[in-house]
Each structure stands twice: as C-alpha cells, then as structure tokens.
Design goal:
Layout lengths: L5 H16 L8 H9 L4 E4 L7 H10 L3 E5 L3 H13 L4 E4 L5 H12 L5 E4 L1 H4 L2 H9 L2 E6 L14 H5 L3 H4 L5 E5 L4 H10 L6 E4 L7 E7 L3 H9 L6 E5 L3 H13 L3 E5 L5 H13 L3 E5 L12 E6 L6 H8 L9 E7 L1 H13 L4 H19 L4 H8 L12 H4 L4 E3 L1 H13 L6 H9 L4 H6 L15 H13 L3 E4 L5 E4 L1 H7 L6 E3 L22 H18 L3 H4 L2 H10 L4 H5 L6 H23 L2 H8 L1
Helix pairs in contact: 1-2, 2-3, 15-16, 19-20, 20-22, 24-28
Bound molecules: adenosine-5'-diphosphate and zinc ion.
Length: 620
C-alpha cells in the first residue's frame, strides 16, 4: 500500500483519537510518531511511564491496512491491554502460553480470516519458525516492540528472546517497526537501535518529567506515625507502600488493616496463590493499599494508583524513579512520599559492602547510592535534581515538590560536627551512632559506664541537641563523606580523610535543618477529594462504575478513569452528546455505558430537586 499523504494521516489519526479513544488532543510527540509509523518509517520512542506509548502503535495499526503485531514480554500486561482495547470496540487478541489449545485455535482462525486489528504476542512465541512462517503470510500493518530495553544486555530486564527480534525485517520486509521503552540511558538506546536493526529509525525522546507526581522526602522519626499522617484523608484511594523486608511488609499491612485501610501484603515469601490473589484484588477493586517489597510492580499497569510511599530507602535513583512512576499513570495528581533516616544510610551501605560481588561492582553500587542520598539531602527542587540525574535540564523550580512548597532551612553545623567527629575519635572509632550520641548528651547508659566514656572530654558537650537532631547531623556527615559506617565492624563509625578538613576548620558545613514536628504544618494535598456537596453523586458514580465492572468482568478503571468520572461530576451531562464531550468517552463506551451513567446522574438530580425549598417554589 502506498503511504498516505501526511495531512490525510493526521486527520485520520485525530478522528480515531476522538471517536475511538474519546480524547481531544495528542500529547507530546504522539502525533508525529503516529504519522511516521503510519507512513511506513521505523521509530524508537522513549517516553516515561504513563506518557501514552500504546497509542503510538495502536493508531497506526488501525489506519494502515492489515493487522498490528505487538511484541510484549509480560503476559499480565497483554491481557490487560487487550481487555482495554476490546472495551474501545477494537478487535484485539493475544497469543501466549496462558491460552488453552482451543482458545489458541480460535485466535489463529480469526487471525487467518483477517478479523483482528491488533494482536499481542510474546517474543519467544513469535520467533518460533512455525509462527514466523505463518504470520509472514498474513497482512501485517506495523510491528511494535514494547519494553524494548529488554534487548539491552547490560540492563536488568534483559530477555534473550528479544535479541532474536533483530531478524524481523527478513520476515516482514517493508513493515514499519516501532520500539518503545521508558528506560532512557544512552547505552540502552544505542543497543536497542542496533540489536533490533531499526534502520533509519526516527528517534523520539519525550521529557521524563511526571509533573502530576508530587515528591516528598521527610526525615524519619516514627515512621508509623508519619505514615498515618500521610495517609490521613486517603481512605478509598489505591496506593503502594514499599518496605525493605518481608517482616516489615507483614507488620505494616496488619497495622494498616487495624487502622481501617484495605491493605494487603505482597512479597516473594508469600505462596503463589496469595500473591496472585492480592495483585488481582489490587487491580480489580477500588482503594486497595498494597504493602510490598520490590517484588511487586513488574507489569502493574493500573492507571489510578494515587500514592507510592517508601518506608525504606530504595537502592538507587533508577529504582526510585521506576517505583514512584507507578503512581498517577492516568495523569491525575499523585503523591510520591518517602521517609528516610540514618538507619537507611547505614543499612544500604551494609548491603553493598557485605555482598560478594567484585570491588568494581561495589564501587558502581556505591556511586549509585551516593546519587540517591545526595538527592534525599538536596535543598533545591527535587524534580530538577531528579531530571538532571537522567540527563534532562530544567531551569525553573517545579512548585510541586516538598522543597519547592516549603523551602528547606539550613544551619551552620560546623561546630557540632567537630564535636561529633572528635567524640568518634576519642572513643577509638569503634562505636555506632546511638552510643556516641549518648556520650555527647551525657546519658550514663551501662555501655557508657562500662567503657568509662563519662570521663572523656566529649562527655556531655552536646546536650543542646536532642537525639533526632544528632541523628540528622550524623546522617549528613555520612552522606557528605566525613564518616563511614564500617560493615566489617558492625557499622562502627570511622573517620574518613575528609574529616580532617572539619577538624582544621577548613570548611563550613551548612546542613539541612530537619523538622521533626509531630504534626507538620498543614499543606494542601495535591490529591483533591471531592467537595462535600458533590460527595453523594461521586459515590453514586463510583458505585455504578464498580457494578458495571463486575458485570463485564473488568477492573473499574477500564469502564472509566477517575478523570472521566470527575468530569461527569462537574459537568452533570444530561444527554449523549454531552457525554461524548467528556475526556475518555468514545463511541464504543458511550454505547455500552452511557445510558447507565446518564440515568445515575438524572436520578441524583431528581432526588436533590425534592428538597422542601424547591417544592414550595413549585406550589407558589
Ligand atoms: P505508557 O504505556 O506510556 O505507560 P499508556 O499508553 O498506558 O502509557 O497511557 C497512559 C494513560 O494516558 C492511559 O490511561 C491513556 O488512556 C492516557 N492517554 C494516552 N494518550 C492520551 C491523550 N492524548 N489524551 C488523554 N489521555 C491519554
Ligand atoms: Zn520542585
């Protein structure tokens, strides 16, 4: 088929966007990407999670003649995507090991009859000889390779089968291929282009900023109490709470349930059945909080996760970005919140040093940890620092992170640092922070008496700071490279060469002034709950969504996203044309769900008109 002229492609794409997907405008590079692929060019797309990658191959597949082929590594994601497309009236199917023989035969036959618009397929299945021979006989409109970083041998998601995808042009000559990923390093970019043989590909790089996510890092004091404050007013919202250990996951989940949340644990130590069950409930029900280790998240495509909380420090900026990126894929406001303290720094250091990997690898891990710690301690805009780590420059402050919303105060900690460091020195560099703080604060613990540390010169010279304040000093001394927790000596703090500069008064140390208030100054949440007047209709709309979801056997967000419901709440449509104007409502969904929602809104309007006031109006 000759490529259609540009203008025509754009009109068609816009038409599908509105009528099928129910959206008004393309985002970022979407339109240009769709135009390139539809015109038969190869493309590489780097876009953050939630950026809208799927549309970039779905629309070209629909415009070009033939069927779109989507290579995807995760079975759970395939099922989800196919179900979502079917709700939009698109004929989608998948081929993977989860199908029974009969189901597979049915899909095969519909493909042969040309009844499918888009088919998802696992790489290992696609690259089997029989499959390639068969599919190359069919009319293929475009090939999308999702999660394309799986082809990168240095990345952590490497999949052997992805390397074979480089042979696709031999079997599908002239069919445009589009590779997509949310992993952005320069190295993996080059590897994708080479290993997938994406000749002449246009490369589209979207900003990795997630403006709807608000970043907050608070100094850890009592993490349970802090989590409780953070979650106040978040009942009924879906979220993820990450912890480092299975034990902590279990304890936190139990505690949240006792506090009235629908919380479920998830970690590698749970049996398969519970894990699957918990993940399923998280996707299918509104308002579940998953408390999890990093075992949770791969393949989670839930758009309405409203918060991601970290009770422990993640391993690197990359992990942090990926884990928090699971929040707010639908573009609505979401929170990324973390508490972080001295113990995290010590623990992460220990994890690196106690591993049996090579020195080179440890050095690499250490520098990754340093970058993350630097970010935690940063007094500037968090988003700016985060983006610059990924190579993106940004000039202005974001206004949607903790340091922008409440600028950090700093203080001259030089003299107190000298006090602490000399206490380390006088006690022989053999103790951890807790004991050293006891000595400085003049607390005669058994250990202090046993070692005679109540007789040394640094005894009681630090009573003016409380325990939390001293811990904040120690944390910043470690992060700044003046102290080192030695894992070979049970985390005893040792002085580094840098520390000498502090003793010699060669540098001034301006530290973050951490605030340890029990009740933080009330600040406006990024996530808005609805006005109390709107509450009854909001509940009615959500109930309607849940019951339709149950009826169709799909998660509520596949009926409508929160944003769509919120627009209904505000515009109170009374006829179909008004519903169509709402974002996320296309023709298929209008037909399927429109009448039900209009009826819900109508019933609500009638019930509110029956107030005594309006009745007397009618009589007079
Ligand atoms: P990604 O695969 O990049 O993580 P998705 O393709 O799943 O992102 O899209 C994320 C969300 O954004 C989806 O809910 C999708 O419907 C929505 N979306 C994508 N493009 C648009 C658009 N142009 N306008 C409105 N919503 C969009
Ligand atoms: Zn900011």
């Amino acid at each position: 088929m000759p490529a259609a002229p540009n203008v025509d492609v754009r009109t068609k794409a816009q038409d599908i966007l509105q009528k099928t997907f129910g959206f008004e405008q393309f985002r970022g590079h979407q339109q240009a990407i769709i135009a390139a692929v539809t015109e038969g060019k190869n493309a590489l797309v780097l876009m953050p999670t939630g950026g809208g990658k799927s549309m970039c191959y779905q629309i070209p597949s629909l415009i070009r003649s033939g069927m779109g082929l989507v290579v995807s590594p995760l079975i759970a994601l395939m099922q989800d995507q196919v179900a979502a497309l079917q709700q939009l009236g698109i004929r989608a199917a998948f081929l993977n090991s989860s199908l029974s023989l009969t189901e597979r035969r049915e899909v095969t036959e519909s493909l042969n009859r040309g009844e499918i618009d888009i088919v998802y397929i696992a790489p290992e299945r696609l690259m089997q000889d029989g499959t390639l021979q068969w599919l190359s006989q069919l009319s293929i409109s475009a090939i999308a390779i999702d999660e394309a970083h799986c082809v990168s041998q240095w990345g952590h998601d490497f999949r052997k089968d992805y390397l074979l995808l480089g042979q696709l042009p031999r079997f599908f000559p002239g069919v445009p291929r589009i590779a997509l990923t949310a992993t952005a390093t320069e190295v993996s970019r080059r590897e994708i282009l080479e290993n997938l043989a994406l000749d002449g590909a246009e490369v589209f790089i979207e900003s990795f900023d997630r403006p709807n996510i608000r970043y907050t890092v608070a100094p850890k004091s009592d993490s349970k109490a802090q989590l409780r404050l953070f979650l106040a007013g978040m009942h009924g919202m879906s979220g993820i709470v990450y912890c480092l250990s299975r034990k902590k996951v279990e304890a936190t989940a139990r505690w949240l349930v006792d506090s009235g949340f629908k919380a479920l644990p998830y970690h590698a130590g749970l049996d398969d059945q519970s894990r699957t069950e918990h993940q399923k409930r998280f996707l299918a029900e509104d308002g579940i909080v998953i408390v999890a280790t990093i075992a949770f998240g791969m393949g989670i495509d839930k758009p309405d996760v409203r918060f991601v909380a970290h009770l422990d420090l993640p391993g690197s900026m990359e992990s942090y970005y990926q884990e928090t990126g699971r929040a707010g894929r639908d573009g609505e406001p979401a929170e990324a919140w973390m508490v972080y303290g001295l113990q995290d720094v010590v623990q992460r250091n220990r994890m690196i040093e106690s591993g049996d990997s090579s020195d080179e690898f440890k050095q690499h891990e250490r520098s990754k940890l340093d970058a993350l710690l630097g970010w935690c301690e940063s007094t500037g805009c968090r988003r700016k620092t985060l983006l610059s780590y990924f190579g993106e420059k940004r000039d202005s402050r974001c206004g949607n992170c903790d340091t922008c919303l409440k600028p950090v105060k700093t203080w001259d900690a030089t003299v107190d640092c000298q006090r602490f460091l000399s206490c380390v020195y006088r006690t022989g560099q053999r103790f951890g922070a807790a004991h050293l703080i006891d000595v400085l604060r003049g607390k005669s613990s058994d250990k202090v008496v046993q070692y005679g540390h109540d007789k040394i010169s640094t005894w009681q010279i630090g009573e003016h700071l409380n325990q939390n304040e001293w811990r904040s000093v120690v944390r910043q001394l470690i992060v700044g490279g003046f102290l080192f927790p030695d894992p070979g000596a049970f985390g005893a703090l040792k002085l580094t060469n840098q520390a000498r500069k502090v003793f010699r008064n060669e540098i001034t140390l301006n530290f973050r002034l951490d605030s340890f208030e029990k009740t933080p100054t009330p600040k406006k949440r990024s996530i808005q709950s609805v006005d109390s007047d709107d509450e009854p209709l909001w509940v009615a709309l959500k109930d309607k969504r849940s019951s339709l979801a149950a009826e169709y056997g799909i998660p509520p967000y596949m009926v409508f996203h929160d944003r769509t419901l919120r627009e209904m709440l505000h515009s109170r449509p009374s006829r179909e044309s008004e519903l169509l104007a709402i974002s996320g409502i296309g023709e298929a969904k209008l037909k399927k769900f429109g009448a039900e929602f209009l009826a819900t809104i109508r019933r609500y309007a009638e019930s509110t008109q029956l107030t005594p006031d309006s009745e007397s109006d009618v009589e007079s």
